[in-house]
Structures are given as C-alpha cells and as structure tokens.
Amino acid sequence: METWLWRSFVWHTWLVRVTRGRVGGRLGRLHFLLVHHVGAKSGAARTTPLLHHPMEDGSGFVIIGSKGGSATNPAWVHNLRAHPDVEIEIPGEGRRRPVRAREVPEGEERERLWRLAASDWRFFDSYQRRTSRRIPVFLLEPR
Questions:
Q1: What global pTM score does this model have?
Q2: Which residue segments constitute the domains of the chain, with CATH numbers given?
C-alpha cells in the first residue's frame, strides 16, 4: 500500500478514537466503524476504518469493498474472506463488538444491501461502473 495512504488510515483511526467519533466518524449519511481483522497471509492484526450502513433491525452492518472503483479489491476483503470472525468498534461506544463477516456475492439479498449503502453514499454506483470486477458486499453480523 502507498505510504501516504497507509498513514491516512492510521491518522483517521487515531482521530476517530481520540474524538470518540465526533471528528472522522461520518461521511455524508454514512458513518465509519473500525474493523479489527487479521491479515490473510501475514496473520498480523489490522484496523481499518470503513463506511457502513447499519441494518434497521439491528442485525448487522453493511460494508462495501469498493476501493474507489479500483481494478483490485481492498486488502481487508481478502482478510475477511480468510478470517471472517472479526471485531468492530463504533466510534463513541468505547467497546468492541464481535461479528462475523459474511460476503453476499449474488442475488436479491446482495442487491438489497447494495441499495441500502448506495442510498447513503451515491458514489458506490459510480465506483461499480468504473471497474469490471464485481464489488464485494459484506454483512457484519453479531456473533
């Protein structure tokens, strides 16, 4: 990963934690959460800030592996596929929640979850048009 990009993730994570989500905890109508996951190859602990859409019934959170419409998936997608049991941190809560990351690759459920996220962050649709890959959709469910 580019050094400047990695530093921006580290900075953003720090900023969200220090301000308890008051700064860096939102972008548009979507909120950020911190995903604590394990590297697929390295086994190293990782923390990634991601936009999410909470499910209305409280059953989980939708995250999208868009990487701005890049030709490749973000590294966290590979990590969640290899190690789906992760923890999330909602800015301002002060605790971690154990969740299981379930990829929703096709079908009606995927389309519904995509629409939920895209209704808050309109750029997801333009990111999909930019790339030939199918952008991954994950549902983070409590465990």
A1: 0.82
A2: 3-142 (2.30.110.10)
